[in-house]
Specification:
The complex is a heterodimer of chains A (388) and B (404). Chain A is an alpha/beta fold and 388 residues long. Chain A folds into two domains: 249 residues, 3-Layer(aba) Sandwich (Peroxisomal Thiolase, Chain A, domain 1); 129 residues, Thiolase/Chalcone synthase (Peroxisomal Thiolase, Chain A, domain 1, 3-Layer(aba) Sandwich), CATH 3.40.47. Chain A has twelve helices and 15 strands. In chain A, strands 1, 2, 5, 6, 7, 8, 9, 10, 11, 14 and 15 form an eleven-stranded mixed sheet that branches. The longest helix of chain A has 17 residues. Chain A is globular. In chain B, the strands form three sheets. In chain B, strands 1, 2, 5, 6, 7, 8, 9, 10, 11, 13, 15 and 16 form a twelve-stranded mixed sheet that branches. In chain B, strand 15 and strand 16 form a beta hairpin. In chain B, helix 3 crosses helix 5, helix 6 crosses helix 12 and helix 9 packs across helix 10. Chain B is globular and about 60 Å long. The chains are: A alpha/beta (388), B alpha/beta (404). At the A-B interface, helix 4, helix 5, helix 6, strand 6 and helix 7 of A face helix 4, helix 5, strand 6, helix 6 and helix 7 of B. Strand 6 of chain A pairs antiparallel with strand 6 of chain B, so a sheet runs across the interface.
Amino acid sequence: MTTAIVITGIGATSPAGFGSQALWDALVEKRACLTPVDPPVPKGTGRLCGAIDGIDAFLDDRRWRRAAGISKYSIAAIRLALADAGLDAAAWESRETGLVTAVTHGAIRFTREFHEAVIKEGPAAASPMLFSDSVLNAPAGNASIAFNVRGPAHTVSGDLGAGTLAVSTALKSIRHGGVKVCLAGGAEELDPVVRGVYASLGLLAPKRGSVSIEAMRPFSKEANGFIPGEGACFIVLEEKDSAIERGARIYAEVLYAKTPLAAARELNTDDWGGTIVFSGANGTSVDAIEEAALGRLFNNIQTRPDICCIKPLVGEAFAASGMMQAAAAAMAIYKGATPPSNIEGAINGLAWARRTDAAQARRIKTAIASAAGFDDGGGLVVLKAVSD
Amino acid sequence: MKKRAVITGVGILTALGAGLEANLSGITQGRSAVSGITAFDVSGYRVTTGGEVRSDLACGLNAGAKAAGRYDRATRLLLKAASEAVERAGLKNTMAENTPIFAGTTLGGMIGGTAYHRALVAGRKAKPSLVMDYLSHVQAARLRDALGLTGAIHAVSNACASGANAIGFAFRDIRSGEADCAIAAGYDTMSEFTYAGFNSLQALSPTVCRPFDRNRDGLALGEGAAVLIIEELDRARARNGRIIAEISGYGESSDSFHITRPDPSGAGAAAAMEMAIDCAGTSPTQIDYINAHGTGTPPNDMMEAAAIHTVFGPYGERVPVSSTKPMTGHLLGGAGAVEAVFTVMAMNSGVLLPNLNYSARDPACELNVIDKPGQRADIKFALSNSFGFGGANAALVFKRWAGR
């Protein structure tokens, strides 16, 4: 019998704003939180992005003023998640507190700036500050300092399945690693060089310049790539019994969190009932892989699950997106509502899913965050409603 | 009842050479493979040495010349070590499809990434093929594909503790019954990016790396990879796998102190060691050898000595301790995995590994530092430490396999 683990807090720093409610509102209102990229825009690199605005004003803590964007987004999201969970980092048992941060490109801007100085001016111009904050685990290291985390502070990496990997690693830390409360999150920052690489691989939605949820079209017959995004999202995980004991608000219980997505074939969905899927589809070749895997998963279900894509609203933020999907799934259960699907026009497949144009109130028993990966194999998180 | 995790295959690649034999002879004889850097132009640097891998990287897993050319050096190091490990475990072409891979690295495909960026900065056409292996989980994905597996890849990047964390994660999954066989790896390349970084932090030794010595003045960087095949004991026995050693404990913690400097009290490192020893169901006085993190920087070694004294009490002055980094250089994300293999080699050959270049005792590091090669010892339990930037601490306890 494994210990039941629940989500008791959510914090998000996303193009929709600060806080999980801002992300939820954007989903419900079908509001594309995209902006034109800063000029000059080289040919074919895509004209829109999902960018964070105003992080320095929000994060009024001078210690992190010079940190990389990805560290600031992480620290802001964790602060929001802890407040949401009613936890005080100054008061908790720090050795029994853990943190898992999923990254994809890491602090790519500092990485690039550090290296550019070495190339152009030689080793004497190399900045030790940029170097130490460019390391992949710098966001987790900074956050462990900011929030008094003295249990494990892990950094895991991947692409679209990285968020799931953070959740599964956190669950193991609680079940087998002596951790009582574990933060699990994902973080990503925008960078023009990364955008250029994806553009040259033909993976960015290049043409449509106007801000709308139709700019990026997951599952569509007209899908033509993704819009890059950034941000961070963290959830607070703890044992159900201790969450109840401290009177915490419980969003949902984590039923399953595993990578790769293909491993989900072991699941039996027959009695899941009122389900919603928060998909990781992004308008590239991964959509068909996810569609096929979920099609197999739901081939016996009586009620077709609702489906919702978050990326047309905030962009593709890789490790951060995976956790935003899981956070949206937890909120859907807790709020008893399904956001619109955000899947426009003619689509490929999805016969097993129910598409909706507007938010609806409904009791949700199971909510899912799923993604197929570019290289990491993707992953699946299944959350269920907690009765009483 | 918790399951037991045993090592049934290892592969290793360091500046000392490719494979178990070359490394065993190097570490037991106390040979340093740190020499002049050839991978990039070091003329502008204060320090010009490191432990580079000069072995042929061709192996069974990247035999296709086309594939080998396409892979980043990091991927090739990993595949080379993995090829040896799988072969030694007797699992070539017979590994279960869902076998998970746990891989620790700090840099991933930084060699390709910096080549791409260099072309971009110079205004030349930057080929996207250079960055296909850039992200730090992609090397593990290439290994998964090369082995024909479809299981999970767990890429962990906790700076210089990464390799130990990868082994610890695999150990935990075997213990809990989540998996019955796993691949654990640590690897990193010699890249100008990191070299310039450690140079800017003034962490590179301008003389020689001499951990725990009073006159220590920094670390030497290295590169390489180590891969361990870890199996559940009953499964290993059932298939008549050769058991190399048991992994009996893993501990992890963080300092919550500073992004690059360790907490001088050593409290975080001590917590990880205590957790690992406790997990192994043993006590500090049963530990016969400590393979230290021992980078050779003044703050790390002082902190590690303090942590050892906290955990081991009076025995802290007697327990044999050495750092093998003067021989291979510091392999960053590879260190924890390479040193796990070294620790097991020491245990199985009954030889304490030498801490090269140690001559002057430091009152801040009052330890029983093994300063000469060839000292025999009966090692039943051994501890391997790994600490990294961001305050990441990991410790592993190994138990000699005595047939039961």
